[in-house]
Amino acid sequence: MTGMVDYSNRDITAVRTLHDEIKKVLKAHERGERGDALLRDIKVLCSCIIQTIRDPYCQEKICEVEIHSDELFALDKRSRWDRSSTQASPIFLRRLILKSLEAFDDRLRALEMLRQSDHGVRASGN
């Protein structure tokens, strides 16, 4: 019986791992690591998540992560003096990314609970 629950949540388990990898890349960026490779990593991870989880809300949140990551890494390429006062700061962009990741994780938990309750209803024959 638990094999079916594990199977039905395999996509959630996979995207959680990818989600954690995105957070690691953001931590590296926060510590001062820079480079196109970090942005490519985030883009690949986001793409893998979008292809794995078929929930529109989750996909939307990961698209937000990708968009804000583009903006965050674009700031790295400009000198501090080239920025206009209307551009978002790296701290603000990181917060937006983390809020999207948090909302994504909350939705994953909700999906997991929904699937478990659906499995329980089917197992009991109702």
Average residue-wise pLDDT: 87
Return the CATH class.
Mainly Alpha
Uncertain runs with pLDDT below 50, 5 residues or more? Answer: 1-7
Q: Strand percentage, roughly?
A: under 5%
CATH architecture: Up-down Bundle
Q: How is the biggest beta sheet arranged?
A: none
Structure classification: mainly alpha
Strand and helix order = HHHHH
Bin the helical content.
over 70%
Q: What would the CATH topology be?
A: Four Helix Bundle (Hemerythrin (Met), subunit A)
Radius of gyration: 18 Å
**Number of separate structural domains:** 1
Shape: elongated
First-last Cα distance: 16 Å
Give the total of beta strands.
Answer: 0
- What is the count of helical runs? 5
What's the arrangement of secondary structure elements?
Blueprint: H1 2-8, H2 10-30, H3 36-52, H4 56-77, H5 90-124
Main attributes?
126 residues, mainly alpha, Four Helix Bundle (Hemerythrin (Met), subunit A), 81% helix, disordered N terminus
Q: Would you write up a description of this structure?
A:
The structure is a single chain. The chain is an all-alpha fold and about 130 residues long. The chain has one domain (about 1-125): Four Helix Bundle (Hemerythrin (Met), subunit A). About 80% of the residues lie in helices and about 0% in strands. It has helices spanning about 1-10, 10-30, 35-50, 55-75, 90-125. Helix 2 (about 10-30) runs antiparallel to helix 3 (about 35-50) and helix 3 runs antiparallel to helix 4. It is elongated. The protein starts with a helix and ends with a helix. The relative contact order is 0.15.
